[in-house]
Design brief:
363 residues, alpha/beta, Quinone Oxidoreductase, Chain A, domain 1, Rossmann fold, 7-stranded mixed β-sheet, 6-stranded parallel β-sheet, 11 helices, 27% strand, globular, binds NADPH dihydro-nicotinamide-adenine-dinucleotide phosphate, binds zinc ion
């Protein structure tokens, strides 16, 4: 850390250490690398915890498109600010801070001005890893499975000093990705909400929707986690082979499913005017298709996609989560167990908690 402080002070590149995959076989190995220097508006964060999102697995395995290797995934980052640039006003050294899926954007287009930075109309959304950093010589970005990160203060989320950082980390993606569509679809007391896929994102969708006063139902592949779902406030858990037996009509169904499935069966469960929000992103090879005809004949229902959430809404989500003590169920691991976690999350052994890497214990 001392070395990083000296580098920051001297305006030099920051030495970093992380866990990277070399190709789409996605086996993790330790790697030294460096990050851009701490600019006037940047902060340097010592990363303490990094969540593992299923998007990390899709990206590391090139399941959507060819990845940029070596790749250090991780966009659920929580840590402590150890240096600040000369113009930084939001943070001081010692503060807790979080970083989610983005580290920069143009800041000038309509979307950025509305704080929908994930949809930057100039194509300059810089995602936290596996992306080109348009603002730093087009170098690749490296994510949170590492010991530090340099980020523009605008893209860092304020985290209060007493917050449990291991639980905060997953909120920066799993939290915002589910909070955002619930707000967009105006879920309120009495809304009937379905959550398809009950993993890292699904459990957050369930907890938020319950807090917002909705009646929430979970759709999962099996009943293994029924008790947990009920404990978290679900009215019932239905298995996906029995959807025809479901009696409820839903105002909103959020699909967090990361594998091949048929979205039309969920469309059938919507009430008149109901909405199906797609957040799960299955691999391109097995990308689900939706019948346009069934769409037409299910008039007045809407299907929309939702991508994480903007920075302003991410701060709102974090404040809401802390105020209401809504946290993910987590399992803390060290970096040598990332390969195993990836296996578990793809073969049904994920257990429904969020794996979170304790970075300090891993070094
Ligand atoms: P997890 O692996 O934690 O959870 C996925 C869950 O879906 C598991 O519980 C799994 O069950 C379940 N599941 C798998 N296939 C089916 C199926 N056919 N029907 C019902 N349930 C199923 O993943 P995450 O929650 O981290 O991510 C989910 C998806 O969301 C990923 O595709 C990810 O890339 C995407 N994502 C999208 C974002 C966005 O902005 N739109 C942001 C973040 C993530 P089992 O335990 O049985 O395997
Ligand atoms: Zn994610």
């Amino acid at each position: 850390m001392q070395e990083n402080l000296e580098e920051a002070k001297a305006g030099k590149r920051i030495s970093s250490f992380g866990w990277a995959v070399a190709d789409k076989k996605a086996h993790f190995k330790a790697m030294k690398f460096s990050r851009h220097s701490v600019g006037a508006n940047d902060i340097l964060i010592e990363i303490l915890f990094a969540g593992i999102c299923h998007s990390d697995i899709h990206s590391a395995r090139s399941e959507w498109s060819d990845g940029i290797y070596p790749m250090i995934p991780g966009h659920e980052i929580a840590g402590r600010v150890i240096a600040v640039g000369s113009k930084v006003s939001k943070f001081k050294v010692g503060d807790f801070a979080g970083v989610g899926c983005m580290v920069n954007s143009c800041g000038e287009c309509e979307a950025c001005k509305k704080s929908h930075e994930q949809f930057c109309e100039n194509g300059k959304s810089v995602f936290t890893y596996n992306c080109t950093d348009y603002f730093h010589d087009n170098e690749p970005t490296y994510g949170g499975y590492s010991n530090n990160i340099v980020v523009s203060e605008k893209f860092a989320i304020k985290v209060p000093q007493n917050a449990p950082l291991d639980k905060v980390a997953p909120l920066l993606c799993a939290g915002i990705t589910t909070y955002s569509p619930l707000k967009f679809s105006k879920v309120k007391k009495g809304s009937v909400v379905g959550v398809a896929g009950f993993g890292g994102l699904g459990m957050m969708a369930l907890k938020y929707a319950v807090k917002m006063g909705a009646e929430v139902f979970v759709f999962a592949r099996n009943e293994k986690r029924k008790e947990e779902a009920l404990k978290m406030g679900a009215k019932a858990l239905y298995t996906t082979d029995k959807l025809k037996e479901v009696k409820e009509k839903f105002d909103l169904i959020i699909s967090t499913i990361p594998t091949a499935y048929n979205p039309s069966v969920y469309l059938d469960l919507l009430t008149y005017g109901g909405e199906l929000s797609i957040v799960g992103l299955p691999p391109t090879e097995v990308m689900p298709k939706i019948s346009l005809n069934s769409f037409v004949f299910k008039a007045n229902k809407r299907v929309y996609g939702s991508l994480i959430g903007g920075i302003k809404e991410t701060q709102e989500m974090l404040d809401f989560s802390l105020e209401n003590e809504i946290y993910p169920e987590t399992k803390i691991i060290t970096a040598d167990k990332i390969d195993e976690a990836y296996e578990n999350l793809t073969n049904g052994g994920g257990g429904g908690f969020r794996y979170v890497i304790d970075i300090k214990k891993s070094l």
